[in-house]
Sequence to fold (92 residues):
Amino acid sequence: MGYHEFSSVVDDESKEALTDRLLEMSCLGSFETGRTVVAYFPDTLDIGNLRDRLRSLQAALRESGLNDELSFDDALIPHKGWNESWKKLPTY
Fold:
């Protein structure tokens, strides 16, 4: 199973609303770096549906008076045998 890595650039005032929405959409985990929120979803997720739901978040932000500037991008991260690959790392 791979993952969709979904990156969103958002104003600080709207970051909490975005993070809440990502959790509602069954985000597997996320982290923030600067204005970017990176979230992970299973590769079985319909990415078009995710984009549509985030566009609806933009409308909700606008209606509530928050900055609705929101850009997003996604990448498919293929499955990797992490349990085995870490064993191949050099030891010091």
